[in-house]
Amino acid sequence: MPNKQSAEKRVRTAERNRVYNRYWTTRCKNAVKKVLTAVESKDNAEAAKSFDAAQSIIDKAVVKGVMHRNTAARRKQMMAHRLKSIQEA
Fold it and tell me: What domains sit in the chain, N to C, each tagged with a CATH number?
């Protein structure tokens, strides 16, 4: 339990930020999973559509400071590589 007023405020702020970050992190993970599921089922159209949506969500998370830009680039690269593999086949 915080003893000072500023410490109490930091507890409230930290909780607010935790909820906000968790929302965006979960949203990113679900978007990536949707792409990978479509790739595994070899559904080209659905995979391409969900890939575009996932890229947008990940980019928004970077702008909001929830995800580092290199992490976002790595996730997008991984999805693009898998999408390309089913499009070639």
Answer: 5-88 (1.20.58.110)
**Class of residue 49 by CB neighbours under 10 A (exposed 0-12, middle 13-18, buried 19+):** middle
The model's pTM is 0.90
Look-up: residue for tokens 């400071």? Answer: 65
Summarize pLDDT for 22-62 with one digit per residue, the tens: 999 999 999 999 999 999 999 999 999 999 999 999 999 99
End-to-end CA distance of the chain: 59
Tokens at residue 25, please? Answer: 């992190």
Q: Tokens 């969500």 identify what position?
A: 57
Rounded CA-CA distance 71/66 in Å is 11
To which residue do tokens 């990978």 refer? 36
Burial of 85 (0-12, 13-18, 19+ CB in 10 A): exposed
Amino acid at 86: I
